[in-house]
Design a protein that fits this description.
Shape: elongated
Strand content: 15-25%
Largest sheet: 10 strands, mixed
Radius of gyration: 53 Å
Number of strands: 21
Helix content: 40-55%
Structural class: alpha/beta
């Protein structure tokens, strides 16, 4: 439901002074009450008007001059504070410089008459149509104060207990209100004064109006709750409906739809592109940015999609005589930021449409009086093809402004105070003329101040960004320190485990120094690994785990050993030597003479853990058996060779004889 629909469903009071003066005694008012299709009319006193407002709580109390209800600004603020929370005071003729009611009524097509009852009805109907400004003297911030409901007294036997009870009740009620504000999701700040036993008072500054706060003002026993809206520095005017200015719209349709909006002075207001929004989404986006007067395309003829947008806004269409060249579009949009080619084309369409109408806009502007909306005149001239003069007559048919501004009540003799007021009003008018000259100078200073404020804002944003970066750096440093501590603990734990493993290995070696218990009844035999067939490797192995008689020794690299190395190994009297690689002839001869079996390691299935290893007993025995067979054959060959040598020597000796 929009604002206009809500207004039509509400009760609206329209008032105009009937006789007397609010500064004097017993003023009377013409009152018109609009409730749906019904209209009630009456002449009431100020007191009765207040009673009716309190009883019916209208959505708006409309008037053409707020000072018909209050004598001065202080009285007006008091009147606004008295109004029910749901009732707005609306001045339908404008803000600080109101227009004649007749002109406003004529502009919006509302019936108008000079009698007070007609003026009251015109004010009510204008407010019902969301025409006018809400008069406000308070912000949307509310103060909720919780304090003592009674004095703590001057003393006595039970004074401390009595004071503690009061302060405790204040603290309890403050906490209840804080809980209710949290449940309502309201933003607030709390300032509590702690006293003996609790709080002497607690003040909540809530970002909401009183009707939105789930707390009511009351006084109950020890605690008093007061609710008051924060007052502005002066009286402010807020339009009932935000004004939507006339704009020029450029549209580039397609898979990606781009829309650009410019004002009637050729200034780009906004641009966007979308691949997902439908026509309704684009229309909603445009409505939020103004009322399209011209809808433009960058090609000829105008695409059907652009034509649909034009018809939906009842706007004037514009398309170039021929398709706009890309280089001209690039040149026209060179000073404007855009994200893609579609936005560039939409911007070019809007700006070329403005260029085509620029001279016409200037001519219309020169003819429009200062008190008439130029954009409305331009829109009507373009849409209806009327002359500027005809449009001005339609917008402002009554030219006798002076007669309209005169009072329609019966003339009476002015009091001395009223004459003085009139004299002061004329003086104010002269001062206002002088003030206009000063405003020009103030505007220049305001621009300078805005520049400084922008620089200050940029500096604050930069400072906030740097502060966020510092906080993030600190967080990452803390995280890094935490991870480093975890790493150190993990490394320390790993070191402990390594040392424990080393101790376990040492204990295992000590416990199995002869490796005889490894086999047990599992048909396994321990194997002692020697990395190389060198004296140094054999000595290191002997130091680490000992080489004893009957050991199974595995030479990981058996090549290169000489006679003395083989003799060193033979002294340990191993049961068998398993080898990788070939033995030298000298080493092989030493081990054979020492009757130490030697076999390839590939014939034995071994499992190794560091310098420790185990093998199947059956595999070792097979290697030993195989060596013994080869050794027996080798001995037979040696014996045969020796017999042959003896025979040869014997024969040689016989020949010598």
């Amino acid at each position: 439901m929009n604002a206009r629909t809500r207004a039509l469903d509400s009760v609206v009071f329209g008032v105009d002074i009937q006789s007397g003066d609010v500064r004097g005694d017993a003023p009377s008012y013409a009152l018109v009450v609009l409730d749906g299709d019904e209209a009630e009319r009456d002449v009431v006193s100020l007191r009765k008007l207040r009673r009716l407002v309190e009883a019916r709580e209208p959505a708006m109390l409309a008037t053409d001059n707020m000072y018909e209800l209050a004598a001065d600004k202080d009285a007006l603020v008091h009147f606004l504070r008295w109004l029910p929370e749901g009732t707005k005071l609306v001045q339908v003729t404008g803000a600080e410089r109101p227009e004649p009611l007749s002109r406003v009524a004529s502009r919006h097509g509302v019936p108008y008459g000079k009698k007070p009852m007609k003026e009251a009805e015109a004010a009510a109907r204008l407010a019902l149509g969301n025409v006018g400004y809400e008069v406000s003297a308070f912000t949307n911030t509310t103060t909720v104060k919780v304090s003592r409901g009674r004095s703590t007294g001057k003393g006595g036997w039970s004074q401390d207990r009595y004071t503690r009870r009061i302060h405790g009740n204040v603290r309890r009620r403050a906490r209840e209100i804080e809980s209710e504000l949290d449940k309502a999701g309201l933003e607030y700040e709390r300032d509590a004064t702690e006293k003996y036993g609790g709080f002497s008072n607690a003040i909540f500054t809530v970002e909401a109006r009183p009707k939105e706060i789930p707390v009511s003002a009351n006084r109950s026993g020890d605690v008093r709750v007061e609710i008051e809206r924060e007052r502005r520095d002066g009286v402010e005017f807020e339009p009932l409906v935000k004004r939507r200015d006339r704009v020029i719209v450029g549209i580039d349709p397609g898979t990606t739809t781009a829309v650009a909006v410019a004002d009637l002075d050729g200034n780009v207001l906004d641009v966007y592109s979308t691949r997902t929004d439908d026509t309704a989404g684009v229309v909603e986006w445009l409505i939020e940015r103004g009322r399209p007067t011209i809808v433009a395309a960058d090609v000829q003829p105008m695409p059907e999609t652009v034509e649909k947008f034009r018809r939906s806004f009842d706007a004037v269409g514009w398309a170039p005589p021929t398709d706009l060249p890309v280089d001209e579009k690039l040149h026209r949009t060179r000073d404007i930021d855009y994200d893609n080619d579609h936005e560039r084309d939409a911007l070019a369409a809007a700006l070329f449409a403005y260029d085509d109408h620029e001279n016409q806009f200037a001519r219309i502007t020169r003819k429009v009086p200062p008190n008439v909306d130029r954009s409305e005149v331009i829109a009507r001239v373009l849409a209806d093809e009327e002359s500027v003069e005809a449009v001005l007559r339609e917008l402002d048919p009554n030219v006798e402004d002076e007669e309209e501004e005169e009072s329609t009540h019966e003339p009476r003799e002015l009091t001395a105070e009223e004459k003085r007021i009139k004299r002061l009003e004329r003086q104010v008018e002269r001062l206002e003329d002088h003030a206009d000259d000063l405003k020009t100078r103030l505007d220049e200073k305001d621009e300078t101040i805005e520049e400084y404020e922008q620089e200050l804002s940029d500096a604050r944003r930069k400072e906030r960004r740097e502060a966020r970066e510092r906080r993030e750096v600190n967080r990452l440093e803390r995280e890094n320190e935490r991870l480093e501590r975890e790493r150190d603990r993990a490394e320390e734990r790993a070191g402990e485990l390594e040392r424990k493993l080393d101790r376990l290995k040492t204990l295992w070696k000590l416990d199995h120094s002869n490796f005889s218990d490894v086999a047990g009844d599992r048909n396994l035999v321990a194997v002692k690994v020697v990395e190389q067939f060198t004296r140094g490797a054999i000595e290191r192995a002997d130091e680490q785990f000992g080489l004893a008689a009957g050991d199974v020794v595995y030479l990981r690299d058996a090549s290169g050993a000489g006679r003395r190395t083989a003799e060193l190994l033979a002294e340990t009297e191993p049961r068998v030597v398993l080898r990788d690689g070939g033995l030298s002839d000298a080493a092989d001869e030493v081990l054979f003479d020492a009757e130490i079996p030697v076999g390839p390691a590939d014939d034995v299935s071994m499992q190794e853990v560091d310098e420790l290893a185990v093998a199947r007993e059956s595999d070792v025995e097979a290697v030993v058996d195989d060596w013994e067979e080869r050794a027996e054959e080798r001995r037979r060959d040696q014996n045969a060779a020796m017999v042959d040598e003896i025979i040869s020597e014997h024969r040689a000796g016989n020949r010598g004889k």
